[in-house]
Amino acid sequence: MAEHHGARGTSHRLDVSAPEKIRNVVLVGPSQSGKTSLVEALLLASGVLTRAGTIADQNTVSDFDDLERLHGRSSALAVVPTTHSGFKINLLDTPGYADFVGEVRAGLRAADCALFVIAANEQIDESTRELWRECATVGMPRAVAVTKLDHARADFDATLRAAREAFGDQVVPVVVPKDGAVTGLFTGTKDDDRRAALIEAVIEESEDETLMERYLAGEQVDEDLLVRDLEKAVASGRLHPVLAVCATDGRGCTELLDLCVRGFPAPSEHPAQECYRLNGASAGNVSGDPEAPLVAEVVKTSSDPYLGRVSIVRVFSGTLLPDTPVHVSGHFSAFFPQDAGHEDHDEDERIGALAHPFGQHHQQAARVLAGDIAVVGRLSRAETGDTLSGPDEPRVLRPWTMPVGLLPVAIEVMSRSDEDKLSPALSRLRAEDPSLRIEQSAETGQVVLWVMGEAHAEQALDRLRNRYGVAVEQREVLVPLRETFTSPAKGHGRHVKQSGGHGQYAICDIEVEPLPQGAGFEFVDQVVGGVVPRQFIGSVEKGVRAQMERGVVRGHPVVDIRVTLTDGKAHSVDSSDAAFQSAGALALREAAGEGVIALLEPYDEVVVVVPTPHVGAVMSDLSGRRGRLLGTEEAGGDRTSVRASVPQKELLRYPIDLRALTHGAGTLARTFAHYEQMPEDLARRVPGRS
C-alpha cells in the first residue's frame, strides 16, 4: 500500500506508541454544513497539507469517489488521520445526506467522540437532533463545531442558542468569534460573562467538590485543571463544548485541534464493547489493552481495482500485525434474527498488508495498537460488522444496529453474461453496505434492492455498472398480487387423448367456493361410487394446486378457495396420475370463466414516528394512499407514532415522500399484514402475466 506524498501534502508518520496518544473523532451533521471542508482546514492547520482542497475543485482528501466528486457531497465514510502536539487524531468524515446514515453509524462505531458540525447560517434540522439523541442513548461523547463564520448570514450567537435548545443546557461555548478572530474562553478576561459561565459549568462537573466554593471566593482556577475536568465531563457525556471555526480562513482550527488532544476522550474511555465466544457465551468486555488478545471490528468494506477487497478496521483490544492469521466472525443472526442479508460465517484468514488510511491513500503500518484504525487487505470473507480476533481465542462483538432500507428498486440485467456476473456482484455490494437489502422475488421474478433513498440507489447502481461491470437497468417495482373467487362456480375438466397405443383419459367435475381472507385452500372429496378411483383423487388435487400457482385470469396465484370434487370418469387402461392432474387444472380454469375473479393486493402495517406538529399532514397523506388509520400514541420527546394499514403499491416511494413531508424528521417501519381485494377500477389496469 502506497504512502501518502500527494502534491498538496507532506509526508507524515502515523504510528503511535500508546493508545493514550490517539483520538478518534467522527464528524457528523447535515449535508452542506462543511464537514469535508473542515477536515481539509484541520489538515492544513496541522501541517499535513500545504494547500487545502475544495469541493468545487473536486480534490478533497475525504471525497475521492467519482460520484462524490460529481455531486459535490460525501456518500461514504472516510478516515483521514492527522497529528498535533504529539497526538494522532483520526478524523472520520461522514456523509450528511440522509440516504447514507449507515456510513454515519459505522463512523460512530469507530470513534470515541462525535463532533457535530453545524453551519452558522443554517438551522439545526430534525435528523441532526435525532442523531444527537442516538449518541446520547449509547453514551457517545459529543462536541459542536459552528462553521461558516465567513458567510454573509452567519450568526454564531443564534446558532449557539439553537444548539442549546436542540441539544440541552450542557452545550457550552469554549471558543467564540471575536473581532474577526476567535478567542478561547479559558484564557479570556476575568469579567467575561461567557468565560465565567464556562468555568462554572466545568466546575459543577468536577470531582473536586470544594472547587466551586474556592472559585466563588475569588480563587484563580488553574487552566490545566479546568481542561482536565472538561475532558472528564466530555468523556462522561455530561458536558458538550462548542467551538467557532471557519474552514475558509482557518479561524479556530488550531483551537479545535488543541481541544481534540486535551479535551476529547482517549480510546481507553470508549464505552466497553460487549464481547462473546462463538457459542454465544459472554467473554466479558474488551479491555482496550494493546497487550490483551486481539479483538477488532470491520467498520467499512470496499473494493479496490488493484488491492481487491479492503477493510477499514477499528482495533478495540490487542495489536494488529501484518501477515498474521486472524479469525473472521460474522454472527448477525445471533443479535438481529430479522437480518437475512448478512450470512453467518466463521473462518480463519491471513491478514495481508496493513496500513494507516488517509482518504484513498494508505501509509504502510508495522503494527496497529488498540484504539487505532487501520486498513487491512486480502480479507476475502470479511464483511462490514464482522469481528477479527485471534484464531486461538475467537471472539464476536455485538454489531451496531444497521439502518434498514425501505425504498425498493427493481433491476434487470441486459445480457446473459451480465446475469452470470450479477449474483457475485450483489454479494460483494451487500458485504460493503449492510444498509442495502437484496431480495430475489420468486413471485414477481424481480431482483429488488431495498435502499435508503434515491441517492443510495444511484450509488448502488453505479457500483454495479462501473465497479463490477454489470450492465443493469432500473425497472418498475412489481408487488405480488393474488387472485381469488368471489362467487361460487363449477368447472368440468376433460383430458382425453387417443393417438394410438396407450392413451390419456381423465374427466372430473368440481365446485369452487370462496373462503374468508387468509383461510388458504381446502380440497373436499365428494365422489361416490368410485367414478374417480381413489388413487387419482390426490392427482386431481395436485392439478388444481398447480393451476392455482399459475393463476386463472392474470397469472397470479389463487388463494382462499374450497374446491370440491363431485364427479368424474376414468378408464381402466388409459387413466393415469398425469391425466387427472391435467383434468383438475382444466376444471379450475373453466370454473374461473364462470365465476367472478378478484385481484388481491398486499397490505403492510406501517408505523410512522414524527414530531407531533407533523401528525395531521402524515395522517392525511396516508389516507390519500388508500390507507386505514389504526391509531396514534405518544412516542416521547414531542413525537407521535402513527399506525396505519396501507397497500404496498402505495408505499413504493413513501420513504422519499415522508422525508419531504416531514423535512427529514419522520421515521418509518413496515411489516407485511395481509391481502385485501383491489378496487375494480385499479384491477382493470393491471396487465396480465405471461
Short description:
By secondary structure, the protein is α+β, with helices and mostly antiparallel strands. It is 27% helix and 31% strand. The strands form 7 sheets. Strands 2-3-1-4-5-8-6-7 form an 8-stranded mixed β-sheet, sandwiched between helices. An 8-stranded antiparallel β-sheet has the order 15-14-20-11-12-19-16-17. Strands 26, 31, 32, 33 and 34 form a 5-stranded antiparallel β-sheet that branches.
Keywords:
eight-stranded antiparallel sheet; alpha+beta
Helical content class: 25-40%
Low-pLDDT parts are: 1-5
Tell me the radius of gyration. Answer: 32 Å
- Taking the alpha carbons of the first and last residues, their distance comes to 53 Å
User: Count of helices?
Assistant: 17
Structural shape: elongated
Biggest sheet, in brief?
A: 8 strands, mixed
Strand order of the largest sheet: 2-3-1-4-5-8-6-7
Residue-averaged pLDDT = 90
Estimate the strand proportion. 25-35%
What can you tell me about this protein's structure?
It is elongated, with a radius of gyration of 32 Å. The protein is an alpha+beta fold and 690 residues long. It has an 8-stranded mixed beta sheet with strand order 2-3-1-4-5-8-6-7, with helices on both faces. Helix 1 packs across helix 9 (253-263). It has 17 helices and 34 strands. 27% of the residues lie in helices and 31% in strands. The longest helix is centred in the C-terminal third of the chain and has 18 residues, at 577-594.
Topology at a glance:
Blueprint (H helix, E strand, L loop, with lengths): L21 E7 L6 H11 L20 H6 L6 E7 L2 E7 L7 H10 L2 E7 L6 H13 L3 E6 L8 H12 L3 E8 L2 E4 L8 H12 L6 H6 L6 H13 L4 E5 L8 H11 L10 E3 L5 E4 L9 E10 L3 E10 L1 E2 L4 E6 L1 H4 L9 E6 L3 E5 L2 E4 L3 E2 L3 E5 L9 E3 L6 E2 L9 E7 L2 H17 L4 E4 L6 E5 L2 H14 L4 E4 L6 E4 L3 E9 L6 E11 L6 E5 L8 H17 L10 E9 L7 H18 L2 E15 L3 H10 L3 E7 L4 E9 L6 H8 L5 E11 L2 H4 L7
Parallel strand pairs: 1-3, 1-4, 4-5, 5-8, 6-8, 29-30
Antiparallel strand pairs: 2-3, 6-7, 9-10, 9-21, 11-12, 11-20, 12-19, 13-18, 14-15, 14-20, 16-17, 16-19, 22-24, 22-25, 23-24, 26-31, 27-28, 28-30, 31-33, 31-34, 32-33
Helix pairs in contact: 1-9, 13-14
